[in-house]
Amino acid sequence: MPNLRDIRSRIDSVENTKQVTRAMKLVAAAKLRKAQERIFNTRPYAYKIAEITNHLKEELDPTAHPFFQEPEETTGVLMIVLSGDRGLCGAFNSNVFKKAESVIESDYAAIQEQGDLYLLCVGSKGHEHFDKRGYTLVGDYRGVFDDLTFTIARDVVSDAIEGFDQGIWSEVTLVYNEFKNTISQNQIAEPLLPIPEERITTPVMEEEMTPMELPQNGQEIDHIFEPNAARLLDELIPRYLYYQVWRALLESNAAEQGARMVAMDNATSNAEELIEDLTLKYNRARQSAITMEILDITSGAEALENQ
Amino acid sequence: MADDLQVDIVTPDGRVFQGQASGVRAPGIEGSFEVLSHHAPMISAFGIGPLVVKTQNAHEFADIRDNRIVFATSGGFLEVINNQVTVLAETVELPSEIDVERAEEAEERARRRIEEGVQGEDRERAEKALERARNRVRVSMGQVGRG
After folding, report:
1. How far is A199 from A47, CA to CA, in rounded Å?
2. Which domain holds residue B124?
């Protein structure tokens, strides 16, 4: 027979938890709105700059720019992993870790064994996760998501370029959560450097991109370059890289808020269910206590009458 | 002229314009140029100056005058394929969005810096700022994009 007071205090504690999770859900919802607006505004530019860069690349010799050249031999790999700074967002962080680890296992196992695998983790959770597992980390990008600015994308790209130029790594891959909608995220691993031959398109890109229609007659397009290809590359390539990373950061940020909102919503409704169960138990216990008492009294009265 | 160019202007802060136009004029790095229908494929960089879209079908823009929308831009890229024009601009502003007073102040400030004789990178930055401010003032006064 459960103690009435024990049940009461459990109900109170679950009620408290519920209030906390509900507040967190509301905060996440407000942040999500802002994050969503940012990513929706940035996507068209990021997609278009990638499209133009690709058109430019198609017509130029790979030797035109160091970032176009496929390495003869992969000397090292930098993996940029975007996670969140905080937990309590369901499987958001662990999904992206799993994705990163599976890519490492399938593509870069040999590189890892040689000790030429480097990780650049944006977000505290990723930093701690991979640090604990003995990966070689580059840079420190913890706690950046509270005030996410373009400077962070610039810093990440310049870190990536520095090692690339020095030959520490010859490939850079970007792993992140893409914001599909509030309740779901896609885990994406896309090559950043060298700039890939065929652009990989994520599920969201396929839906939202409106690429320019190319002439159907199979003619090679021969662009006029103004002022000239070399100058265009100098201006375009850094911007292209900044915006690919910036977009991924915004995607990940929006995805995190969405995941947190859903996780906290689930937690809140679980708490409600628990409270309902406990209330039922509490009432039952109270009722049986009353019944016992009445039984006590009536049987006592009867005993008196029979005397 | 018929509006047979499909124009798409995007900036890092979002899509600014998407629709039909008969011509697009941009302040190319090596001089202003205009893209008309059936222009050859081109990728071009442009600098600070007015970006003009000539169109009959953009009535939602309050700033449209003589079938022209004039934006003040601070540079970017433009690609033409098959009568489709994609403009990637760093910033664009409509005349109505420009705070003329602020632009004039910025112009004054930049001019003073240059007169003080700053050198090197600071000088370049001041010159760029001056050019941007002048461009914004000119666009806001409607002195460009004609003819």
Report:
1. 11
2. 99-140
